[in-house]
Amino acid sequence: MNNNVNRDFNNIHHQVHNHHYGIPPAVSSNPASEEAPSLLPFNGAPIDRISSCFTGREPELDFITTSFNTFQSDKPTRFVIYGMPGLGKSQLALQHANLAFTAGTYSHIFWVSASTVEKLVQGLAKILVLVNHADRSHPDQDVQLAAVRLWLDHAKRYGCLRWLLILDDVTVKSIHFLREHLPQQNASGNILITARTYSIAESVANVAGQEHLIFELKALSKAQSVDLLLRKAGIQTSAAADLESAEKLVSWMGCLPLAVEQAGSYMNGAASRAPVRCRECTMSGD
User: Fold this and answer.
1) CA proximity to 61, closest of 99, 26, 88
2) Which Gene3D superfamilies did the record assign (predicted)?
């Protein structure tokens, strides 16, 4: 009797856990694997790097989410964000990860720096550690890379119902490596990629003859940039002269979020009154 009660409880727990992510219970051809404990959900993205003054980007965040939800593929869906340095591509990717995990869209999120092959190898190997894979300490790099790909291809078997892999700052040096080692099965996985140029974005968006999603990130609007500048500077003002000075300053910086945020930090740390410092910065930039 007790065994029946325990079995019923485990079945109910498994169904509720799967229902949270909107995905039907995984079916395994190996009965032994069904008895293995599910992998607890986690967000492995460094979300503590998200700026406390993150502003705007609601349309972009909505577009990423909608694109992932509607793109039809029998492989992991890829979404590539490209644009010049300083636009906030990494911040946007991290914010998507943060919001999506909180909403229960993904059960597991992984983040890997993709600027060099060495960083890719290290980042992918870390996934094995996060999921407690048997090959996490294997001395052969090729074995580890194959293990990561197979795990992501068949993640449901291990209790990973829906995953997101973020590849941050893909470069020309890492394109060939990614073609060889990224998972190409499992439609329950998504891959979010950041890159600096369209040519790189195009190279990693094409998978087995299917072109996945490419999105060019633009600068913030002038109003969003002014809001970011003043919040980072700790300024609360509605004075026309101060707002005009702020508009000139952010325009001079091209409304690039990174530059605007750095300017705001400088103003916040200045000893003199911040609005005056803002006007001084504007005059020095003309």
Assistant:
1) 99
2) P-loop containing nucleotide triphosphate hydrolases
